[in-house]
Specification:
This protein has one domain (3-155): Domain of unknown function DUF4426 (Immunoglobulin-like). 22% of the residues lie in helices and 47% in strands. The chain has helices spanning 3-18, 27-38, 62-67; strands spanning 41-45, 48-56, 76-85, 88-89, 92-99, 105-109, 111-115, 118-126, 131-141, 146-155. Strands 1, 2, 3, 4, 7 and 8 form a 6-stranded antiparallel beta sheet that branches. A 4-stranded antiparallel beta sheet has the order 6-5-9-10, covered by helices on one side. Strand 5 (92-99) and strand 6 (105-109) form a beta hairpin. Helix 1 runs antiparallel to helix 2. The longest helix has 16 residues, at 3-18. The chain starts with a helix and ends with a strand.
Amino acid sequence: MTEIARALCLAGLALLATACGQAPPDAADARTGAQNAAMPAQTMLGDAEVMASVVPTAHMGAAVARRYAIEPARDRTLVLVSVQRDDASVPVEITGDARDLRGVRQTLTFDSVDLDGLVEHVAVARVSGPDTLRLDLQITAEDGARTTLRFNRDIPR
């Protein structure tokens, strides 16, 4: 992935991590948790880079929420996945699930969102923080190439 595409992805993730609405009672803990949640998990799909992050929707600003067509709420997190080769998005199908610390599993349904020519795949997971989500994502390219991305993210209050 070129430096410009990487910078755009990281800038988008930073925007989501810092686009806060109302501050929770302990703003320092919430910022730390939001930064952990927004840290991207990465893997490769052939020569394309897969980046995934988790953002609590309660920490999103109104403009960001509108862009992703999501209603901010304390019990929802946004799961974002982008797959890029050079400066272009790679067409993929993404399936997966999320489990909380109690082992409750939920199937994630991903929709594609075009953000100024780059495609992000977006799903909503329900979780009430503080908790940890364990994500298991399967990414399949049009040519049949597959990869799995497994990662955990702490969800703040």
